[in-house]
Every structure is written in structure tokens, then in C-alpha cells.
Amino acid sequence: AQSVAQPEDQVNVAEGNPLTVKCTYSVSGNPYLFWYVQYPNRGLQFLLKYITGDNLVKGSYGFEAEFNKSQTSFHLKKPSALVSDSALYFCAVRDHGSGYALNFGKGTSLLVTP
Amino acid sequence: DAGVIQSPRHEVTEMGQEVTLRCKPISGHDYLFWYRQTMMRGLELLIYFNNNVPIDDSGMPEDRFSAKMPNASFSTLKIQPSEPRDSAVYFCASSLGLAADTQYFGPGTRLTVL
To answer: Taking CB atoms and an 8 Å limit, are B100 and A102 in contact across chains?
Structure first.
């Protein structure tokens, strides 16, 4: 079985400050991990993914995420938040060899204040 | 590429009516996914297809829901009869043929059943 936990329903950060959105996962094998962002009344947009190799993954809009196997985490980060980063962020996992279905977390609402 | 296309964007119907949601995947993508998003349950995978063949429909809530993919460029999700608890945003996504490949989402159909 595979699952994802996003422990924070909401994250608040001031513009210009670093931001972190947390994600932990559970899989029986090796994971494929994804981050998506959803703006109001829009579909999910792909940000970045971890497949294998370098634990630090860089993605769109200045976001990055670090894969930590020992802590089974894949936290999303950005060095300097923008007000326009305010959105709903989803972490998702797929276990190698378990098919093509993605298991999504509940989502974390990020609010960046001016 | 135009991305994943869904229609209609909004649908309001009355309980008991038939509802048909439509999706055109990205050209060349072998996999097509239907998801449902609600506040209570988050993002749920309903069904996915590979090369027009349904692979996993274990997420389809009940027999009132059915999905088809008659060709590589078109899929439908039908609800008959519709109920108020079916109100949600329904997303279609598509991806290439590898498990590590990214799923790209359409803008969604917001369904309201009165």
C-alpha cells in the first residue's frame, strides 16, 4: 500500500521569507514522488518530481524539494516566497512496480502575505 | 500542445439526470486518468485507461458511474442517475507510458447536482 501525509492544512509565510511545505510518504518499495500546485478554479499544475538520483530536485517557479529516504519525506521548499505562490499544494506518490495510479495527499494551503 | 481538454467546465443538473463529462488527452499519451476532488475526501482516482483499455476501476464509487475511452483522443465519464453527493470537481489527466512519467491535468469540470 502507498500513502502520503501532508501534516499541515495551512502554511502562512511572509513575502520574501523561505517557505517549506511538508510531505511524508509510505510505500513498500522505492517511490516516485511528485509535487503539484493548484490555483483557485484551476487544474493541478506539475511542479517537480523525484525519480532517482540526486536527492535535491529543482522544479518550476523556483521551487525545489529534497528527498530524504531515512525520514521518508519529500518537503517542498522555496528560498524566497512570493504573494503569487499562494495556492494549494499537493504531494503525490507512486510505488515502483505498483502500477500507474498516483496517491495524493490532502493538500496544504499556502498563504504568502505582503 | 493544448494540454488536456475537458468539457464542460461547469455543469449544473438536477438529481436523477444523466451527466456526461468529456476529456481529450494530450496527443501521444498512452494513459488517461479520471479523478474526483471534494473538500471532504480530497483527490480520488476513479479509473484509469492504458491504450483505451480500462486498467483499474476500483475507485469508481458505484454502478451509477461508468467511463469509456472509444479512441486515443476521447474519453467520457458518465453518471446516471446523478445524486447531490456527486457534486465535485472532476479532473482528467494523461501521461506517457512509463510509471515515472508526469500526469498532466485538465482544468476540471465542476459538477453541481441539485
So the answer is: no
